[in-house]
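Deliverable D4.2, example record:
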Amino acid sequence: MNTGKTKNLGVMGWPIAHSLSPAMQQAAIEKAGIDYSYIALPVEPQALPQAVAGLKALNFRGWNVTIPHKTAIMPLLDEIDEDAAVIGAVNTVLNEDGRLKGYNTDILGFLRPLQEQGVALEGAKVLILGAGGAARAVLWGMLRNKVASVVLAVRTLEKGEALAQEFRQRTQVEINVCAFGSEVFCQAQAQADLLVNTTPLGMTPKVDAAPPVNWELVKPTAFVYDIIYTPAETRFLREAREHGCPTQNGEHMLAGQGAAALALWTGIEPDADCMCMALRQELEKKEQ
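Output generated by the structure prediction step:
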């Protein structure tokens, strides 16, 4: 029950009715037995400054940020964490006595399943498919963990090269860019220890689509990660599994970034498995 002592949390976006965060976060809050409440906050783009000021005035402990506010909110905050600054997007805000600090927990969410499954990143050769916003978090996570090299495979070389050039200034790790179907792409597939899809190819409803990977080139020992979580197994992951590769979908990444946010707000380590279960239940409802 919401009382005068209940600390408020939420997720702001526009639209926001589709968000899975309230069910996922509330499940973890109830499991932990803490006096917090988490709600959806529909905020139109032009109302973002007033919304941020309002949540601060209402003494919200914090909130998640989703499309289209992840970048627009940054100038409205008092401080930005390094990860969020590098990625160029905030997905979590923490209110410390009226001082608002922006974080990006996508890196922690992405890395958590790899750590849980014992995937060694230091010295690994990584192939990332795509160069959009999600690829920025994945790339930064790889560089932070001292991988040996990264290849960005893209449809538009200019976009991939711009991303690579920006991050080359922050690392000694070799970052190369190639086009899908190129000779370099073939070589990268054969050498990859970790293969990550950050593109929307294969996402519901276009489940027949998939990145143009030649599985005959990929090592069966390569770990294959798709950040998509609808469907639970994309065509990309199914083909990887049939090839013998260990796989991971995006459910644990979504739950992991949510768990990292809840830990920032509450100081406790939430039950990420509980959050993942709540997420899967909500997805199954939507599929019916």
